[in-house]
Amino acid sequence: xxxxxxxxxxxxxxxxxxxxxxxxxxxxxxxxxxxxxxxxxxxxxxxxxxxxxxxxxxxxxxxxxxxxxxxxxxxxxxxxxxxxxxxxxxxxxxxxxxxxxxxxxxxxxxxxxxxxxxxxxxxxxxxxxxxxxxxxxxxxxxxxxx
Length: 146
Prior knowledge:
146 residues; mainly alpha; 3 helices
């Protein structure tokens, strides 16, 4: 409004105009406050969204690390399982070798014992052939094979 128009207005009109401008000023301040409040809410929402996105990224990294750790653990178990199988196979082979050696030793000892028994029988037979009187005396006391 121009200065000339303001000068033509009376006091009541000026007060009414001032009162209207004050009401409009209050209304505009309220709108500005509400707009600032909405802006702050949006900023908080954006900050929260950013924080949430950061948290999700962090959780993704945590889950990736956990997945990698689990895979590494499983791989170690597979390796140990293969090592255990290898050790078990080696132990079975050694056990089979020991059993085979024990069987050979047993058979050898049986053969030695059989040979000693055969030799002892021959010596006894020779002895009794040379000493028939002793053989007769022993035979009377019990059963003896010549």
